[in-house]
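Same chain as my last thread, 684 residues:
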Amino acid sequence: MGDDMDCRDGIYLLVNNTAATIKALDAFGKVPAGVLAGNFDWLGDYDECASLTHMHYCSINIGINASSLGLPIPLQLRYGVCVPDVCSENDIIQEVDNLTMLIPPEYRLLDLATPMFADSPVNCQDFPQRPYDAGFICFTVFCLILAIMMLSGAALDVFQKYKKRKMIKDSKLRSSSHQSYGSTGETNKLATKTSIEESKPLLDCEVKNIESSSADIAGLKPSRLQEVVLCFAFNRNISKLLDTSIGQSQSIGCLHGIRVISLTWVALGHTIIFGVMAGIGNPSEPFEKLLPSFFFQAVSNAYSAVDTFFFMSGFLLCYLTFTRMAKSDGKISWPMFYFHRIWRITPLYAFVILFMIYHHPYFGDGPKWYQAIHFDSLCEQYWWRNLLYINTYFPQADMCMQWSWYLSCDMQFFIISPLILLPLFRSRNAGILVASVMLLASLVVTGSLIGKNHLTTNGYGSILGADIGLSINGYSKNYLELVYIQPYTRIPAFLIGMIMGYIMFRQISEHQRIRLSSIVVSGGWALAFAVGISVIYGTYTSYGDVSMFESVWSNAVNVLYGTFSRLGWSLVLSWVVFACYYGYGGWINDFLCWSFWIPLSRLTYSAYLVHGLVIQTYYQAYPATGYMTVMSSCYIFCGCLMISYAAAALFSIAVEYPCAGLEKLMLGHDVQCNKDEDKSDVRT
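reply #2:
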């Protein structure tokens, strides 16, 4: 079609082409079954429309006046049309407005409305959605450079190991020839010893025992440039990732299992909530059947897994920092304290954001892909909020990577942690007093916000209510922004973790053996189980018949649960870690310390960054209206979790592990055979 042709001319030509008109009309959205059950996603056939020449698919979002119909929640109809590609979004908006004006205001129940995760009520889909600009080219070149560095590092590592093996073999042969003039018995012993040593795999640690002069003569000592290249060697980084040995004698192995299970729990919760937010054809299924059911409380309360991450972050921060401070009489380089943290988490974080901006827009298309484009554009506009770790103080609707709020909170906790670490190291009472004051202040603020705003605290009900801007009984359900993502309400788990880390450090460093009677152990596990069940399944009694988003709890009960549930969950975790380390965990400790968890545990940070992107990509690239059931959700969850870990492994090997190696080079630290720091370090 000509460039000077407008939308009406394009439609006129389409009407005169009978075959194209029939296919275009066939691609239009149709009234499906289940409208009374909430099926307002009339998407049509995107692929059929895309197959037509000079046509493109557009999604029209129409708001339904829910109050006139006596409905408690706002409704929006998403209708797919197949129109000539000369018809812009503004052209379609104008035509719909013209039709709407023909309806008298008192009977006007439908009107254009901008949906969630979009910038316009009409969204036309073209591929590619984003031009192949300079940003795309530069990031692609950067990824190719990383790949070349990974391959070059691996080739250099293999070559150096070959030279080392050859040098050691020659050295042993020379030593054997000198000993050959001795007795026959000594010669046989030496030959036997040599054959055994040669059959063992050569480790880098063994090579380091060779005198440096011999290494220099043989040219084995790598140059600074070679050391940089070796940091990217994918074979080395894969070995570090897959190593299941625990070198640290005082390591707390149960944390590996807790970390992986928590990430799995978070991914499960996001699988459901991201699917609902993307749009499904049976919204009554999750809202009326799954959400209020008893077994589903473990899914809707998956946010407790985030508190688990906060607890472990505070625990390991305090435990590892005090371990270092004890060796240096309390002295620590605070600039390096912060540099290490920023360097270990920011490069990979920035890489994922760049991936979302420049590569992710090309990963799919379809009637709902405009949502992905919207999220990617948020990262393009507001990436600096994420990298400064201040995105929780801005509207949640404008947040790049909606699940990244956790990283901001955790970094802010880390920044203020010396206010507790220093007094706690010098004086137990002073440190606990500071932590207690912070804890009490957080509980008071949380309770006040929930009580003043009459917020519901029943898991998905409060989160989804905030996402759709729901207002019931005059109270805005903005629990998400007021309470859920704010650091001053989420810090209790971090503080409890710090206190528990201090307690464990003192007991371990002083070689204290805790002996508990079987009655105390049984009572501890029973109490922990009761509190944990109350936190996870206690919300079952909050769902009423009036609205799936409205809690039947009184305001006082919402305040109590919202204020103390995270505190109770943190105390449960404290008991689990304590009991498992001191031998009172039984099969629970055996399961959590299973070596299978260790490689997955190292991928936790990277998997957390990418899992939301993987889940959203599935739903946003799905070309038709999806239906949510328990079985389908299980399949989607398992598939997305596996893809998330695969992507996390690739990103970690390409970015995270090389950055850790570069840090050691920059700070002048030699790479040690003992990988305790790598196994204990947690960046989520």
